[in-house]
Amino acid sequence: MASSGVRGPTPRWGPTLGGAALFLLLLPAAAAQGCSQNTSRTCEECLKNVSCLWCNANKMCLDYPVTKVLPPSSLCRLSSARWGVCWGLFKEENPYARFENN
């Protein structure tokens, strides 16, 4: 089968990639100011930023310590810490720290 020699328009990726690159450059700056600005507000406002941790005991919005699976007690007691959702509760009296939905 012979080719007709007609080709469709060549896609132009320049502006699309440029916009994506600009977004990625601005993303860390937006995330850096996110957590601490929500201290003394609400858990819901804090956790809109998925990289934040809410400490219910002192109403602080903190950067989640990503190098740890669970936040250390020096940052916030496990029973007061919230991340992802505001309604969960860890019971520390259990050595296996079960999770309860309150």
TrEMBL record:
It comes from the Eukaryota. Keywords: Glycoprotein, Membrane, Signal, Transmembrane, Transmembrane helix. Its main location: membrane. It is found in: Membrane. Residues 1-32 form the signal peptide. InterPro entries: PSI, PTTG1IP. It is a single-pass type I membrane protein. Residues 34-87 form the PSI domain. GO terms for biological process: protein import into nucleus. One of its GO terms (cellular component) is membrane. This is PTTG1 interacting protein. The lineage of its organism: Eukaryota, Metazoa, Chordata, Craniata, Vertebrata.
